[in-house]
# Entry
Amino acid sequence: MNLTIHPLIVLLFFPGGLFLLASGLVFQWADRKLVARFQNRVGPRFLQPLADVLKLLAKEEIIPEGAHRGLFVALPIIALAAALTAALYVPMFGVQPFFSFQGDLIVTIYLLSALTISLGLAGANSVDRFSLVGATRTLTQLFSYEAPFLLAVIGPALAAQSWQISKINAYAGETTWFIVAQPIGFLVALVGLMGKLELPPFDAPEAETEIVAGALTEYSGRGFALFRLSKDIELVIGLTLVAAFYLGGIANPLDFVLKTGGLLLVMALLQTAFARLRIDQTVGLWWRVGALMGLVQILAILAGIYIRQWWL
Amino acid sequence: MGLEVSTPWQQVLDKIRTWARVNSPWAIHFNSGSCNGCDIEILATLTPRYDVERFGIKLQGSPRHADVLICTGPVSLQAKDRLLRIYWQMPEPKFVIAVGSCGLSGGVFHGCYNIVHGIDEVLPVDVFVPGCPPRPEGIIYGVAVLLEALKSGKRPERTMTVELPAGFEMPQAEVRQ
Ligand code: SF4
# Structure
């Protein structure tokens, strides 16, 4: 679907800005509701995430002693900005991305990592021991899932011969779904996304039974609300990316809802089914299994490409 | 939360704020020397059977994220400073629910040499939930009473002066109506 809208509207309302924030809240609600249903609970009400965010925004923000004031205030904004910017290159809601250039896949992935890094910095910018342990774990996890996730995303990019998300998306829509052609890549991408979002079983960085709330322990009010919002938007972006690459592309809003919804269902099931891994188990899983599987997938794709060129 | 709530814009903002606050009470649980009976009941309240996420109630680990301090026990002299510390680490606006007979008056520990006899001796408590221990339904009802009071704009008066542990500075409290 191709639309021409004024860039300012794109940035502020649709599909950037407000619409993106709203969809982040909706996806957070859907995630919590699905997990609740899997646990045989009723689950939160539809407006619950909105109430949470508004309440946090209306609360006092305490800047703890020993933290760098400027950094403390700026990091949530940087995180949210990174998430919002990354969304502009992704085919959100089935609309063509408005800003698109050769290589925007790499930019998007870096922006999503910038979010995690500001989370880690937010934890490190504190004298609180729980924040520090949380920050260490956040960054350790970043180093473990990033490589396999990147490998998994490169698969479709290699097959489509492009580093441009919109081109890969279009290519994925024309051929057979990549989930059939590259099942290992899909698995790695999906589980990598869960690691990126720090969802259970990869929630060691914010394990509330051990380290209170991880890197965000000292954040209250506005800062916490912004970090939560950027996490929600990261969830939407991640789901859109994986759906666009592996589930046959996103061509229209209906596609978007069905495919990301289906992915969310699987992710909620995985969240409920598995218990939290220790941080060393997470790293081991990613480097011993995830990265190797990703590499095998890439090699298979490269071989496939060469064989095809040789034949034709 | 200014005193001069006059313009319609401010009234709308206040309505939204109250709505959000009533619909999303995040709790933190602190045991100030209780026998653990009440704490087990609080944990039972948080299980899927009672599913308090329906009301938006969520247990938070960090006092910085919490709105409601759910506190049990008669406040032993050991726990008193910690209780105050937790309380002052919470951002405004914050509310306190005292759960169990111990939190009300000292309960079975009444007359002991090493307790303060009740949470309201130390903190401004908004809701008391009696029982030894109270059932999960009782605890949920206590939270509902607090939310009801918030909705109608009332709030149990805070007339107490709170004693601060050494090294703590009182944050500038806002005037509320
Ligand atoms: S009220 Fe009863 S159950 Fe609760 S802490 Fe006191 S003695 Fe234990």
